[in-house]
C-alpha cells in the first residue's frame, strides 16, 4: 500500500468529486486504437482521484465523530479496513466487520473505485461496521 | 421441481476440470524431492476445498517432516494464487492469459502448482485461508452479485439458512443438482430482468479488475452483447464492429471457463449460464 493511498480526513467537499472514469465522454476514441501494451500500461497507472466514504456504526460498535472521508479510488478495500481500525484505535485482534450498504462484505482486494461505481448512494460509498458478524 | 437439468451449457461448465500437478516447495522438505501429487480438480472449485487432501498426501509422504503446521498456500511460477478465486479463473489468468502475453504455444497442462506451508505471503494473499473463510467470501460474492441484480440482497437473504448452505454444500460435494437447484433462482433473478449484470473484467499483467454497472439492455433496448460491454470497458482492445473482417484480425479476445465465446453472445444469457458458482461472469482478456 503506497503512502499516497492513505485516506485523508479533511471534510468532504460540497459536491461529489469529478471522477474521469464516470464521465463517458472522455472515453470516446479520438484516433487509431492504442496498442494492447499501451492499454495495459494505462490501466496499471495508479489513479489518485478520490471518492467519498461514509462510515456507519452498527450495534454496539463505537460511533465516529467524523465519519465522512475521502479515500483514494484506486486503493483496495483493505486500505478502508486498515483506516477504520486506525480511526477506532482497534488492535489487530479486535473483531471488526465491514459491510457495503448493510448488505455484503467485500473482499479486502476489491478496488474501492469499483465498489463506489457500483454501490454508491448519492455520491457516497456507505460502509457499515460492527464488532460481530451481521447480515449472514 | 426445477428445470436445471435442461441446461446443457451450465452442466458442461460445472463438469469442467483441470489436471493439476502439486509440487512441494523443496526448501520446505529439507531438500528432499517428494513425489508430486496429481489430481483433477473442478474449475468451479477452490484451492481451500482441496487443501485437506493435499495435506493428507503430504502427511503420508513426509516421513518425519514437521512443517505442516502453517497455513497452506500455492503459487504458479512464483506468483501466489488467490485462494478466494475459483480454480478455473486462476488457471485462465495465470496460465492461459499469461501465455498469450508471453507468446507461449504449449498448453501448460498438467498445471504445475507449488505448495507451501511456510512464509504465508500476507501482503499478497488474504490471511486465514480456511474452509470457513472461503465459504464466507463465496457467500459475500453471491450477495454482491444479488445486490447488482436487484439493488438489495433480499433474494439471498430470503433464502433459508439451509438453502443458502446448499449452494456451498453443492460445490463441496460436486453435486450439480444440489447447487443448481438453488442457484437457478438467483442467476435467473426469478425471471425478472436484472438491473445490472454481475461482471468482472481481468486485463493481463495484474491490472486492477474492472467492475461497473452494466445494464442488460443497450440504449436501443436490445440485449447487450459481450462485445458492447468489453468495448465500454476497454474500447481500444474491443472495437464495436470488426473493421474490415478478414483484413485485420482482432487484437484481443476473452476467455470464460477456458474457452473463447463469440463476442456477439447475449451478456444476460452468459451471466445466467456461464457465471461461476459465485454468480459473477468473470471475463479474462487475452491478447491475440
From TrEMBL, chain A:
A GO MF term: Atg8-family ligase activity
Record localization: Preautophagosomal structure membrane
Major subcellular location class: membrane
A Gene Ontology term for the protein's cellular component: Atg12-Atg5-Atg16 complex
Region (Disordered): 1-41
Keywords: Autophagy, Isopeptide bond, Membrane, Protein transport, Transport, Ubl conjugation pathway
GO biological-process terms attached to the record: autophagosome assembly; autophagosome maturation; autophagy of mitochondrion; glycophagy; piecemeal microautophagy of the nucleus; protein transport
Pfam families xrefs: APG12 (PF04110)
UniProt keyword annotation of Protein transport present: yes
Membrane topology summary: Peripheral membrane protein
Highest taxon above the source species: Eukaryota
Function field: Ubiquitin-like protein involved in cytoplasm to vacuole transport (Cvt), autophagy vesicles formation, mitophagy, and nucleophagy.
Subunit structure: Forms a conjugate with ATG5.
Family recorded in the similarity comment: Belongs to the ATG12 family.
Record protein name field: Ubiquitin-like protein ATG12
From TrEMBL, chain B:
Ribosomal protein recorded as keyword: no
Domain annotation Autophagy protein ATG5 UblB: ranges: 197-285
Domain of life of the organism encoding this protein: Eukaryota
Keywords: Autophagy, Isopeptide bond, Membrane, Transport, Ubl conjugation
GO cellular component: a single term: autophagosome
Span of domain Autophagy protein ATG5 UblA: 13-117
A single GO molecular function term of this UniProt record: Atg8-family ligase activity
Entry annotated with the keyword Transmembrane: no
Cellular location(s): Preautophagosomal structure membrane
GO terms for biological process, alphabetical: autophagy of mitochondrion; cellular response to nitrogen starvation; piecemeal microautophagy of the nucleus
Similarity comment text for this entry: Belongs to the ATG5 family.
Biological function: Involved in cytoplasm to vacuole transport (Cvt) and autophagic vesicle formation.
Record's subunit section: Conjugated with ATG12.
Protein's name in the database: Autophagy protein 5
Organism: Linnemannia elongata AG-77
